[in-house]
Write a structure and sequence with these properties.
alpha/beta; 9-stranded mixed beta sheet; 9 strands; globular
């Protein structure tokens, strides 16, 4: 257990590294480490804790440069100390990567050297249920009887798991674009998001008429095996289609247009294409266990591929969003090491994440930003889940996209804090 303290302009920071079990059901078994950075404004060192649960999965918590970065931080620090938790497998927590050293006795020295079955078994311990168990140990380490939650996207899924498993530890829960469906309905979620992406695609092509022909030519090149990134890796049609994820964020349409406006043979286009594609080797958990985040007591069985509408199959200009396709693991050399494990995880019967009875009994003040046309977390399912929570107040808004917490500066967080405290009604 390690703690260090340091400062940034206007901020006091302390870094905490904590040993935790890989499998919380086996506390005496192999262990990993979890890292959190506690941030306080000057004079705010005794304020209550607000733990930030990052979206993803597979990304570390933000690294502040000052009290205004990220944009919502200054608002949070007026009332709280903020705990930036690097969820297990990310950042300064024990990372997940091909060369991650496995604990002694797990059958291999690194994940790269492990069998696919060993990799898959290891990766079953990186969902929201394990993250919440880690957070509880971190809360106890920090000496907090309770703390508040701010969950963005997948972080909201994690917050919902928190309310299902340990509501007694939560003072207030704030969720932004992160109210998942409860129960075995993940296929309905994927069908809804596919239909939503069809609509977004058509709206984009209507707004920028020349973009559709440019994209179709790129898809033809991808289908023929001629579309290659600067490092030589191939981009197939399905991987190219995932540029649609840009349309799920504010100004994403402009970003996609500017990309397609470049000469497709130019270094600028190829480098910008590489940077714009989602799912890659930096954050492998984002790809390998992405679908499992929706699996509330079911196997995923490549849900995005299975539920893809026939219209999308037939027309490559109908784009995808956060839809993992199985061939990605063959196309991206950095993800290839996980291909067999990903197949095994797709058949894994994941345990339930949420207990409806526990959610109905959770009397925690809560507020959620539900984005009216969210590309990734459908509004209808979010509202059905919100109705399970007696302390939940929802703000349904078309003002922001899925990245509203970041894009709004202090706006979304300020609204939710007021809503949870009863200072607003909607």
């Amino acid at each position: 257990m390690m703690t260090t303290t340091w400062t940034l302009p206007g901020l006091q920071l302390s870094d905490h590294t904590l040993p935790v079990p890989l499998d919380h059901a086996d506390p005496a078994g192999p262990g990993i480490e979890v890292f959190a950075r506690v941030i306080a404004a000057e004079g705010g060192e005794d304020r209550p804790f607000l733990v930030f649960l990052q979206g993803g999965p597979g990304s570390e918590a933000p690294r502040p440069l000052d009290a205004a970065s990220p944009g919502w931080l200054a608002r949070a620090l007026r009332d709280h100390r903020v705990v930036m938790l690097d969820q297990r497998g990310t950042g300064r927590s024990t990372p997940v990567g091909p060369d991650t050293a496995l604990p002694e006795g797990m059958g291999a020295a690194t994940l790269r050297e492990a069998t696919a079955a060993q990799q898959a078994d290891y990766l079953t311990h990186f969902r929201a249920d394990a993250i919440v168990a880690d957070a509880e140990l971190m809360r106890e380490h920090l000496g907090a009887e309770t703390w508040s939650l701010l969950g963005q996207s997948f972080g909201g899924f994690t917050a919902l798991r928190y309310l299902s498993a340990a509501a007694r530890s939560v003072e207030t829960a704030l969720l932004t674009g992160g109210l998942p469906t409860v129960g075995p309905g993940m296929d309905d979620v994927y069908r809804t998001t596919w239909e939503g992406m069809i609509g977004r695609s058509e709206r984009h092509w209507a707004r920028f008429p020349g973009d559709r022909d440019r994209f179709r030519r790129l898809a033809d090149a991808a289908d023929a095996g001629r579309l290659r990134l600067p490092d030589g890796q191939r981009v197939g049609v399905e991987r190219l289609r995932r540029l649609g994820h840009l349309l799920g964020a504010s100004q994403g349409g402009e970003r996609l247009h500017h990309l397609l406006d470049l000469d497709p043979a130019s270094p600028a286009f190829l480098h910008d294409l590489a940077a714009a594609l989602p799912f890659g080797g930096r954050n492998p958990l984002y790809s390998v266990i992405h679908e499992s985040c929706w699996a509330d007591g079911v196997a995923t069985r490549w849900a995005a591929d299975r539920t893809m509408p026939s219209a999308v199959h037939e027309d490559p200009t109908l784009l995808g969003g956060e839809h993992i396709h199985r061939d990605l693991f063959a196309e991206d050399p950095e993800l290839e090491v996980w291909a067999e494990a990903a197949d095994l995880l797709a058949e894994h019967e994941w345990p339930a994440l949420y207990q409806e009875s526990a959610l109905r009994a959770a009397r925690v003040p809560a507020a959620a930003a539900v984005y009216y046309d969210d590309a990734y977390v459908p509004r209808e399912q979010s509202m059905a889940t919100a109705a399970l929570l007696p302390g939940m107040r929802t703000w349904v808004t078309s003002e922001y996209e899925h990245n509203g917490l970041r894009a709004s500066g202090e706006g979304v967080l300020d609204h939710l804090l007021d809503l949870a405290a009863g200072r607003r009604t909607a």
